[in-house]
Amino acid sequence: MQGRAIATLRRFAAAVWLAGFLPVAAVWLAGFLSAAAVLLAGFLSAAAAAAAAAAPPAPAAHVWEKVEIALRAQKTYANPYTEVDVWVDLKGPGFEKRCYGFWDGGDTFRVRVLATAPGEWSWRSGANPPDPGLAGASGSFTAAAWTESEKAQNPCRRGMIRASANGHAFEYADGTPFFLVGDTWWAAPTSRFRWYDDDTPRAIGPEAGLKDYVRLRRSQEFNCIAMIAAFPNWANDGKPAGLKMADGTVLRSAWKQAGTESAKDMTDEAGNRAFLFPGKAPGYENTIPDLERINPAYFRGMDRKIEYLNSQGMVPFIEVARRDIGQAWKKFYPWPDSYTRYIQYVWSRCQANICLFSPIHLDTPAQSIPPADWNLAANKVIEKYGRPPFGTLCGTNSNPSSLANWGHVDKARWLSFHQIGNRRTHDCYAYLTEIFRASPPVPGINGEPYYDGMENLEPGSDAAALYCRSAMYGSVLSGGLGGHIYGAGGWQGGLWSGEVEAASQWPLWNVVRWPSADQMRHLKAFVMAEGRKYQDLLPQTDLLAPNKSGKPNSCIGWAYAAGTADRQLFLVYFEKECPQATLSGVQPGATYQAQWFNPRTGKWGGARMLTADAEGKVALPVRGGVEKSEDDWALKLTVVSAPAVKGTAAPPGGSG
To answer: Confidence band (pLDDT; 50, 70, 90) for 54?
Structure first.
């Protein structure tokens, strides 16, 4: 009994103690948890702040500035170049497109994109065949606009080149006119235009490099460089420059390297060629590479030159290959798919640079395959990959014109501007008028005109410069309102071929200084004398009488005219030895201010007034008052006053 009482008392005491302890414990526990929560919240907040501080800021770029996305394949491929397609789906303000990339060696693939407008941009990657390292990645970046002062420092910041509103000329994406003033450096991606990592200026001479030639051309107001991406079948290998198989298949039709009978070496500075060996041409496996085993190292060298050109406000016009590779490519590799892949490879590497593209350099159909075969491969690029995603325009070197070689844009679906070329005298300029009249309209240029030193004229001479100026002014006033590409060096080579050998008669460091090049800036000054009004000119040479007093196969004795539909502006060019001419189709009774322009010096002469007769004709003066012009001259006519008329009409002979 006593034991049970003691036990009961113990249980009662425990209960009392527990009853007192629990509230105290609850209060203590609540305080502890609250403090822990505060500490945890503080810790997490500090951790988040630290993470935010440690994380890199959201990637930022400017509009029209390259953004490179690198992806690493997790699978292994025997030939990534032929086996894998990689892309990103890019979204931004007013933009949603698939942008394809390229293999850059090893397990690395790259996609190069840019923003076409300020704002937030995002992307997500994909691949075929599926690869977890290539597909499913995503990212974003913010694009800011350039200021006007920044764009003035580098015109490439104005954006991709596009057609003007009427289709006949070029302009930047921001609407600023782009009158193309180009030079021909076909071998620019190779060691012939030497690359130096440093920016130290070097005198124009044997030690000069690409940057030095760019500095010179910039000072002369050039804004475009024409180049060929690769010459895969060329090497100074002891075999003839012109090489055929026993069955007549052309393996190459190359320019000779000075001092040899073999082809020019066309490697980069490290000795890389565009494709790897051995090739598949029987008996020539170490002469013609495997055109389905690309060498990314070569193209990385080209990349840095293109990037440098853009940084200097220069627009590269990139042709992917020369026509003499065609027969071997078609015979030994799947056509057109193999060549289509190569076009896309070069274009995807350069799609985020401010460039112009071409699928082939077709300076002549000889020693090649038919234009229809090249067209098939280029059209397949559009069918499979679409047009260049950021609006890069596409044209091509041609003979006599891309319209004659390929047809218009309905047949050549990759084409967005036309050009003529490889005819060296003034009887070819009419091809530009034919291009001007094509519908729908696209810009036109003379992309390979008379080169200083051709047609048996002394290279670098006044006579050669005269022929160059005929090509400049005659081409533009015949309808080539996109601009003009210059070339220097005769058939033995020069700047266009990248002559650097000691045995060369015309090394490029001499040829680049010929006076005719500096006269290209005067063409731009004359054409743009009234601002962007030149974009509205109509070729109207048929309104000049006489306009063909010289021989067809020369650059002497012909005259050219272009005018606006409202007849308020006319530009006229007289080659040497032109007689006095009458211009028809002007406003009847109107008074025009006529002002001479010297295409050799770029200086304007004094103005005089000319009054049209009742039939809309005006007699143009002859410079110097002689029977025939003693040199070439240009003339600008602008309306000063005109009788009141009901409406305006295009003058006879004008055509849009």
So the answer is: very low
